[in-house]
Amino acid sequence: MMKNIFDFLMISGVLLGIIFIVATKLSKNGSAKTIVYLNLVVLFLLLNNLQVFLLETVFVDANFFFRRLEIPWYVLIFPSFYTFLIYYLKIERKKATFVYISFSLFILEIAIRIAFIPYFFHDENNFFIARYTQIEEIINASYAIFLFIKAIIILFKYSDLYQSVLAFDNVKWLKNFMFFGSIVILMWVCAILLNLDKVLNREIFIYYPLRLSSTSLLYWISYQGFYNYSVMVERIQLRKEMAAKEIYKNGTHNSKKPENEKFLMIKNHIKKNKRFLDPTFSLERLSSEMGMSTNKLSHLINKESGRNFPDYINFLRVEKAKKYLIKSDFSAYTIVAIGLECGFNSKSTFYAAFKKFTNVTPSEFKEI
């Protein structure tokens, strides 16, 4: 029963991967190198899963040599992801892609399989074949771990290399992937260690959790990668058009209250320097920039605007978003891209704030 469920999930994953590749290839960003390498991640994953499915269902009685020396598609999954990462972060000129090394390793392993063809009909060589595949997997796993660690170092230690990307994406989704990916890597290491003394008769079920978790995780990163890359590309173009067409106007909203001179200074600072467009902008940072205590700032903003600091900043963002939602020149851009470009850090916070200040969703406002 469990085997049937596993087989169903594997073949479903293969079909999902094919649909994803076709859909992304037909998208407007389909030819970008970032998407190409993302599709390669999915392609090598689905080829590996399809091979596993066929060997454990259709070719279950195949020769030992044939079952053990399958095509090592999995050796290309991590290199493709690493290359996707450096293209996504736009640091391809600063960090090696390892593309040539990875394909050379893949071709070498294929060549070794061809060289082993004379052993095909000699069962007495099964132990030799099994030992080789065991060593090969350890080498491939070590290479994958090496690339994964390099990816972690780039993402967490060298953020100065991709500051231009951080202006459009906080890459939190990538950091989450690295965390869960490390768990998958650990599961792979455990599977190898638990089978070290089982050279001829591997415990295949030990690999089931690894295959399912890695498949789920990689399809998730594929979707997230495509979605976030598309939004980032859109925001870059959107920002260019905003900068080209927008003429800065003083004032945010009409108020019947006379404005306190200090509050006017604060408001002008926030608007003139467009601080509200920064998703990480906080009361503490404003306090540092204005040379005033957070308590005094909070009290002043609350008293003069009638809103607390987070609401006041979100109000400015919503007002800016409203302008672009109704402009025909920006109709080609998605609502999410406009919201993120106006300072919100996620679709959910944008929609919640927009609804709060206008009583309608961005979609409904656009149709009014």
Report on the structure:
The chain has 368 residues and is mainly α. It has 2 domains: 238 residues, Rhopdopsin 7-helix transmembrane proteins (Up-down Bundle); 122 residues, Homeodomain-like (Arc Repressor Mutant, subunit A), CATH 1.10.10. Helices cover 69% and strands 0% of the residues. The longest helix is centred in the middle third of the chain and has 38 residues.
Strands, helices and their partners?
Layout: H1 2-25, H2 33-57, H3 64-68, H4 77-88, H5 99-115, H6 126-157, H7 163-166, H8 172-194, H9 208-245, H10 261-272, H11 283-290, H12 294-305, H13 309-325, H14 335-341, H15 347-358, H16 362-367
Helix pairs in contact: 1-2, 1-9, 2-4, 2-9, 4-6, 6-8, 8-9, 9-14, 13-14, 13-15
Task: Looking at this protein, list some descriptive labels.
Rhopdopsin 7-helix transmembrane proteins, Arc Repressor Mutant, subunit A, 16 helices, 368 residues, mainly alpha
Would you give the CATH topology of the largest domain?
Rhopdopsin 7-helix transmembrane proteins
Classify the secondary structure makeup into a structural class.
Answer: mainly alpha
Q: What count of helical segments does DSSP give? A: 16
Radius of gyration, taken over Cα atoms and rounded to an integer in Å: 27 Å
Return the average pLDDT rounded to an integer: 85
- What is the class of the largest domain in the CATH system? Mainly Alpha
For the sheet with most strands, the description reads: none
Count of strand segments: 0
Which architecture of the largest domain does the CATH hierarchy give at level 2?
Up-down Bundle
Q: What is the percent of helical residues?
A: 55-70%
Uncertain segments are 247-258
The proportion of residues in beta strands is under 5%
Distance between the termini: 54 Å
* Shape descriptor: elongated
**Whole-number tally of structural domains:** 2
- SSE order, as H and E? HHHHHHHHHHHHHHHH
